[in-house]
Amino acid sequence: MTTLVSAPAEKEALLNAAAVKGRSLWDDSRRRLLSNKAAMAGFIVLAILILLAVVGPFVWPHSYKTQYREALAIGPTFKDLHLLGTDIYGRDMVARILAGLRISLAVGAIATLVSLVIGVAWGAVAGFAGGRVDQLMMRFVDALYAMPFIFFVILVTVVFGRSIFLIFLAIGAVEWMTMARIVRGQTLALKQKEFVEAARAAGVGPIGIIVRHILPNLLGPVAVYVSLTIPVVILQESFLSFIGLGVQEPLTSLGRLISDGQRELGNPWMLIGPAVTMVITLFSLNFIGDGLRDALDPKDR
Amino acid sequence: MSETAAPLSVSEDDPSRSSTAARVLQRIPWGYVLRRVLAAIPTMLAIITVAFFMMRAAPGNPYSVDRKLTPEVEANIRASLGLDKPLHEQYLEYLGNVVTGDLGPSMKIKDKTVSELIGEGLPVSLTIGAFAIGLAIFFGTGLGISAAIRQNSPTDYTAMSLAMIGISIPTFVTGPMLSLIFGVWLGWFAAGGLDLGRMNFNNLFLPVVTLALPQIAIISRLMRASMIEVLRSNYIRTARAKGLSESRILLRHAAPAAILPVISYLGPATVGVITGSVVVEKVFGLPGVGQSFIDGAMNRDYPRVMGTVILYGGLIIVFNLIADILYAIFDPKVRYE
User: Fold this and answer.
1) CB-CB: which of B59, B176, B312 is closest to A151?
2) CA gap B93, B100 in Å, rounded
3) What's the Rg (C-alpha) of chain B?
4) DSSP A161
């Protein structure tokens, strides 16, 4: 920057301009987000949870797979550091919860990413193309919308076997439709704007306009919807795992742990630990989602 | 309160008021209903088609058994199941059978058809589903209205915090926890797994409550928001100026208008209750459609899984349809011509 500015006076003027620079929309949003206590608490809790899920299994002395035959289904105790007890096979509950949390958060991230890619591509193309293409693409989404999709995911797992990647993909492929609708609506509005006209006048092709001019402006609403999709996706995987169709032993997820725990109500620690972890995770994600929506979409408040 | 709310009355002193039933009939936009029913057919067809071809895409023959069969026996089995015919003929045949309610034989349970299996579970599932929706509408609208008329009061904050909790905590957490607390620890209700199939209050209380909780939460939030909006409108001020009692204003003037978002939520609510019933039936060991669905999925009983998916899809479509038609009846502003 400085190399472009020749005279010291101009430099001075630039610095002053920077000093009185107005707040951008993003600055405003960040300010709103930072002052939202629930959302900030959500971020902190989520950061802790991610840290636990990523680092925890390496640090914790027990593995989620190790079965301690001498400690079958014992309650929370400091002996041998089974802080949340063990399950009916003598596996440490803290280690199981950390492993389950890891899978649940991974599902949240990966399946949301899948839905993000499909949804944004579909919606941006439909909105930008407009006319008959748009009609056709969105009618397709409308038709799919009414389907009981989680049951199709179940059908997929029944027919093609239960692989965790299939579950990631299937859930992501189910959740993209709302994203496509949001993106399409925004794109329809954006493509009327002058800067798109300017880009077209300058000879930028349709793909260039979508990627360089439309997509960056979609960031706000997309970020909001992504943050709202993550807990939904985690819930869907947990639902599948809960009914026994999700991840398979010895791997586990929070839904699977809750499912195992509810069969052993005489040993309630097997249920309470995973259930509390699940609830904390969902709450932090929901607070973040609400906070982002309030911050990025002020007209919706 | 002497007068009950007649949800359809807009102006209560209308001298030419005919019977409620007749007025409801008048309000139904038949053209719209017809178009919606016709539009539902392709969706239903798509569900059946996807389910059918997904099953046929399964690796190996979905009807194959573990044991080795002689070619003749296998050919016989294939012929008896219609698998020797061309795919499009099988598809059309399946389609025709589904229309007549025949979902084919179960692969894993001898001598039972899928329709029979579903029929056995349906009374349990419909009972808990209907009670849950009823509870959800009753308590949801009630909570929403009480929160709205005391907006920003402690009542409001408490109700809405509870609703937030109700929305955030999934059925597969509340179910086992309620079962643990009220079934095992306090022993007030059956924790599940007892008295299988004998439906009584003790058995059904916890499942119904588990199923209803998230719906109560969502409905109360919808109702609160729309009630606040309606209470600010001019015609409510007019009603107040006329000197009507507050309860009459709330129940006869405000609530019928404010309930519209709740009506359009009935479609999504159906999805929530169906999904929830699968969980709840597993948690409390109720022999319903959801339980049979899980069994089918675990045992790779393709026809049963397919048949249940088709049933669920049909239910969701039908309830969306009902919600839209009710909306058209209730909202005088909406004209679908």
Assistant:
1) B312
2) 11
3) 25
4) -
Q: Which two tokens stand for residue B66?
A: 């573990």
- Helices and strands (DSSP H and E) totals, chain A: 13, 0
User: Alpha-carbon distance B121 to B291, whole Å?
Assistant: 8
Q: Do B173 and A278 touch (CB under 8 A)?
A: yes
- What whole-number distance in Å separates Cα of residue A66 and Cα of residue B147? 51
pTM above 0.95, yes or no: no
Closest residue, chain B, to A148 (C-alpha): B313
> What separation in angstroms does the CA of B295 have from each of A43, B122, B275?
39, 15, 15
Closest residue in A to B173 (Cα) is A275
Residue type, A219: L
Asked if A265's CB is within 8 angstroms of B180's CB, the reply is yes
What tens digit of pLDDT does each residue of B72-95 get? 777 777 777 667 777 788 888 888
Residues 6 or more apart whose Cβ sits within 8 Å of residue A80? A68, A71
DSSP annotation of A21 reads P
Residues B279, B291: Cα–Cα separation, whole Å: 8
CA–CA separation, B292 and A69 (whole Å): 35
The region that residue A257 occupies, defined by phi over 0 for left and psi between -120 and 50 for alpha, beta otherwise, is alpha
Token pair recorded at residue A296: 């990025």
Residues 6+ apart with CB under 8 A from B154: none
Of A158, A243, A283, the CB nearest to B278: A243
- Among candidates B151, B271, B147, which has minimal Cα distance to B214? B271
- Residue B151: CB atoms within 10 Å: 13
The Cα–Cα gap between B256 and B246 comes to: 15
Q: Are A175 and A165 in contact (CB under 8 A)?
A: no
Q: What is the pLDDT of residues B2-55, one digit of tens each?
A: 444 444 444 444 444 556 777 777 777 788 888 888 888 888 888 888 888 887
**CA B55 to each of CA A203, B58, B115, B148, B301: distance values in angstroms, whole numbers, following the listed order:** 49, 5, 18, 50, 10
3-state secondary structure of B5: coil
Give the Cβ contact number of residue B27 at 10 Å. 14
Q: B74 vs A227, which has greater pLDDT?
A: A227
The pLDDT assigned to B8 comes to 47
Q: CA-based Rg of chain A, rounded to a whole angstrom?
A: 24
Contact call for B176 and A275, based on CB within 8 A = yes
